[in-house]
Amino acid sequence: MSQLCSLFDQRAHIINETLYLVGGSYLDSSDIKPSSLRKISKIDLGSEFRVDGLINQTRIVTEDAPNELTDKDVTNGGRFFYNNENLWAFASVGRGDDIPTQVNQTDRMYRYDTIEDKWSADKISGGEYQWFNNTNGFYAAAPDGRNWYGGGAGIGIWAGRPGLVFFEGNLTPPRWSFIRESDDLNSIPTPSTIGGSSVYLPIGEEGIIVLLGGWDTTRKGSQFAGDELNWDLRPLSDIFVYDIAQNFWTLVPAKGGLPEMRAEFCLVVNSAADGSYHNIVMYGGWSQLRGEAYADVWVLSLPSFRWIRVEDENNPDTRPFKNNLDNPRVGDIGRTRHRCNLYKNTQMIVTGGIVSQYYDKKLNIDACNSSHPPFMVMDTNTFVWKASIIPDEQDYAVPAFISSAVRDRTKPDGDWPNERLGQIFSAAMSSATTTPSPTSSAAPNPTNTVSPDRGSLSTGGIAGIAVGGVVILALLIAGFIILRRRRKQLEPMPPGPYDYFAASQASIRELASNPLRPELPNQYFGQELPSQYLGHELPTGIHNPELSASPVNPSMLGASTQPLLPHR
Question: pTM of the entire structure?
C-alpha cells in the first residue's frame, strides 16, 4: 500500500470538515523524488485522522484537476480564495495553451465547487487580476468570503505602487478589484513582501489584516551576496496593520522576546470570545541569513503587540527518532514552505513543508521519513502536539501563561502609532470588559474534584451555624481584650508595588500548562532544546491520543558550517 510521505508549496483549505489540497509537490512511497500531482486531494476530517506517521493513500480521495493548477514548475506557492462552498485557485497558475506567453494576467480563475465536486473556469468581473507568475505572497480571508492577497514575486516587486487584490467571494457573482494605497499621507505604503504571512481579525468596521515577516522587496538589501535573494528579511518587531474600512496601513512596533527574522512560516489566530485577546500563533519558517529552518512556536498577542515564546510539547520535528535519516541530533531542525489551518477552534493543522537540518540536509523530501510526518496538529489551548486530528470542537480559552506575560496591557508599549488604530482596539476592549474571557489555568495533570451539594441546608446544619456563630463572637471579644492589654504600637510595613516586567527583575513563572520561559537575546544564535516533560491530557470525554514521548538526548556536536546558497 502506497503512502504519502511529504508535500510542500501546496494550496490548502478546509470546508465542512474536508481538507482540500491542490498544486505543489508531493512524495509518495513509490516515488524517487517529489513531483507534481495532477489531482485535487481531499481528506475527510469528520472522523479521527491520525497524523503520527506517513499517510495511507486510502485516506486520501483524489480527482482530476486542471493542468494549469498542477504543473510543478509554475504552481508552487499559490493560494485558495474561498467562500463556504467554493475554492478559487489564485496565483501561481499556468497560462494554458490558448494564452500567449507574453500575456501575464487574465480575468479568469478556476473554481472548485465542493458541493458538486467539479471544476469550472470563472470569468471574474472587475479586471484582470489573476497573475500567472505571482507566488509566495501574503494572504488573508474573512469568514464571510472576502479575500485579500498582496506581495509575492509578482505584485510584491512592482516598480510602481503595490497594493492588494480584493476578491469578494461573498457576492453573487463574485468580483475583484485592485486596491492601491489611500491618499492619506499618514498611511504607509502597502508592504512589498515575499514570504511573509498575514491573518484577518474581526476588529473595527470591516476588520483588519495583520502582516509580519518575509523579505522586504522595496529596495536591494545587504544581508545576502547576489544569488536569487536581493532583499533583507523584515524584523519581526515590525507588525503591519491594515484597516480595511479606511484603506490605511500602520506600522506597530512589537515588544517582548523577539523571534529570529524569517520567511515561509505559517500563522493561525485564536480570538477570545469577548474580543479581549487575539493571539496569533506562528510556526516554523526559514532564515536565508542564518541558513536554517525553524521548528519553534511563538505567539504574538494583541492588543499588547507582545511576542511570547512557547514551550510546545511532543513536536515531531524536534524529537529524536531511531530512524532519523541523517543524524540523531535534534538541534537545527525546522520546517518551511508549509501551510496552517485552524480547525474546530483549537486545532492548528500543519500541512506539508520541507523539513531540513542545518542548511543542506532535507529530511523528508529525498526519501520517506516517518519521523517527520506530512501532517501535524497542535492544540492551541495547551500547545501540545497530538497524534490525531479529531472532529470534536472545543472552546478556546486564553492560556494562563499568555495572560501572565501580557499582564493586562491593552495597547503597545509607547502607545498607539495613530489615533484611528487606538480607537479600533479601544472599542473592542470596551465590549470585552462586559463579558470577561475564559482563561485556561489547568495544571498539567489536573485532579478531579467532587462538586459540593447545592441543595438547601438541613435543620442540623442551621443549628450548627448558630452555635458556631456564638463561639466565634466570644473568641473575637477575648482577642480584643488581650490586644488592648498588650498595647503594641508596632505597625507592619505595607508591601510596595512590584513590577515583574522591570528589566532588573526576574519574570514571573506561572504554575500553568505552559510556563513562560525566559527569552534569549534576539542576537543569540543558539538552538533551543525541545521540552522534556509530558503532554497534557485533554478534558475527559475528548478522544485524542498523545504522540508518544521520546527521551531527549541531543548530541553536543556543533553545527557544521555551510555556505549560504539560495534555498529553493
Answer: 0.76
